[in-house]
């Protein structure tokens, strides 16, 4: 299921099964970690951290075509796992890529033509000469050939070997081409790129979440929160046909953070959610924004239109981000990561590079609450 929602409709992303070595993913795959899968018509160069200059790790890929749009649309989120950069907005990047179905077909047709040309070996000039067979006969009979004939004879005697060599070469090129088509136009940096363990993301509508599934986790999280922050939360009770009943007493949290209390309340029925998607909807803040969002979120740098909220990453994702190619510990901590994109999702036909969008990172005021295993 793609992250394709109407205005303000809320979709929830949950961690699904790991992506194994024999599994495949494409630009339409919602996933955690791994390397991004660029759209066939887009060249995606690996981004670097604006703070330390290190190669960023790919955090999530979200396939999110908009309603009534002709474009395939994928958003890739990157972050720097270096300790000094963790939790800082400047160390994150969001890239939006789009392309038309016709562009994908054109790219596929072009690749097929290239493969066809590679598979067909060039014809040798001697194959078309009427006397090609006569040169071999003359040599067998001891006839002395002209220097030109000697050259052609030597060349023709190696043609079968050249054909075999070319066939093997073509086979290698084909395999390389197929491998490249799995991740078209992705350019790796020279330095080692940190890669997080890959998982598929399961997408469900908010109303389809089984309210009983995470009840024990919800009770545990709320009890821990109550003990630390002095917030009295009534016992969660399940009534058939009525869903979960949850009430907060008037007691304020010790830190007086009502925004965080609301955040906890909203995710309590599904604490394992890793992503909330609501294009042009309202974000769920974990801390009170320091300034007005109209001042914080800049307009689109390509067309000048305002940006709208599209999705956010949730604290449960933190415990899933483990490196697969580094012996050192990669640190990536956050409260929530808010992604804002161009309201018009502007895109010029034929464009071959992604558009950079706006990201806002909010630190977790109580990260211990989410630091346990998923």
Describe the SSE topology:
Layout: E1 11-18, E2 31-32, E3 44-45, E4 57-63, E5 71-79, E6 92-100, H1 101-119, H2 132-140, H3 147-157, H4 159-182, E7 186-187, E8 199-205, H5 215-229, E9 237-239, E10 243-245, H6 258-267, E11 273-277, H7 293-296, E12 307-313, E13 336-342, E14 355-362
Parallel strand pairs: 3-7
Antiparallel strand pairs: 1-8, 1-11, 2-4, 2-8, 4-5, 5-6, 6-14, 9-10, 11-12, 12-13, 13-14
Helix pairs in contact: 1-4
Summarize the structure.
The protein has helices at residues 101-119, 132-140, 147-157, 159-182, 215-229, 258-267, 293-296; strands at residues 11-18, 31-32, 44-45, 57-63, 71-79, 92-100, 186-187, 199-205, 237-239, 243-245, 273-277, 307-313, 336-342, 355-362. By secondary structure, it is α+β, with helices and mostly antiparallel strands. It has a ten-stranded antiparallel barrel.
């Amino acid at each position: 299921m793609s992250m394709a929602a109407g205005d303000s409709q809320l979709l929830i992303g949950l961690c699904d099964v790991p992506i194994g070595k024999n599994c495949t993913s494409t630009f339409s795959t919602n996933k955690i970690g791994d390397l991004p899968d660029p759209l066939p018509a887009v060249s995606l160069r690996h981004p670097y951290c604006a703070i330390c200059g290190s190669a960023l790790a790919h955090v999530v890929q979200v396939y999110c075509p908009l309603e009534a749009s002709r474009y395939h649309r994928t958003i890739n989120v990157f972050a720097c796992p270096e300790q000094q950069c963790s939790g800082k907005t400047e160390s994150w990047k969001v890239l939006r890529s789009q392309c038309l179905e016709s562009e994908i077909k054109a790219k596929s047709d072009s690749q097929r033509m290239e493969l066809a040309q590679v598979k067909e070996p060039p014809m040798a000039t001697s194959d078309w000469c009427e006397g090609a067979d006569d040169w071999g006969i003359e040599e067998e009979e001891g006839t002395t050939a002209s220097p030109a004939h000697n050259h052609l004879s030597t060349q023709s005697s190696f043609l079968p070997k050249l054909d075999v060599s070319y066939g093997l070469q073509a086979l290698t090129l084909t395999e390389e081409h197929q491998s490249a088509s799995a991740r078209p136009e992705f350019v790796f940096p020279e330095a080692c790129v940190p890669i997080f363990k890959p998982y598929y993301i399961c997408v469900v509508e908010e109303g389809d979440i089984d309210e009983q599934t995470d009840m024990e986790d919800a009770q545990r999280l709320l009890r821990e929160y109550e003990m630390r922050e002095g917030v009295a939360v009534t016992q969660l009770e399940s009534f058939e046909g009525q869903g979960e009943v949850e009430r907060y007493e008037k007691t304020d949290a010790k830190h007086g953070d009502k925004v965080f209390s609301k955040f906890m309340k909203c995710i309590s029925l599904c604490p394992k959610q890793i992503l909330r998607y609501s294009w042009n909807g309202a974000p769920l803040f974990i801390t009170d924004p320091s300034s007005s969002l109209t001042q914080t979120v800049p307009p689109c740098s390509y067309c000048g239109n305002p940006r709208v909220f599209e999705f956010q990453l949730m604290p449960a994702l933190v415990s899933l981000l483990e490196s697969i190619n580094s012996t050192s510990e990669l640190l990536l901590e956050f409260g929530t990561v808010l992604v804002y994109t161009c309201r018009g999702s502007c895109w010029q036909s034929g464009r071959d590079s992604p558009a950079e969008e706006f990201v806002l990172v909010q630190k977790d005021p109580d990260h211990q609450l989410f630091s346990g295993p998923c």
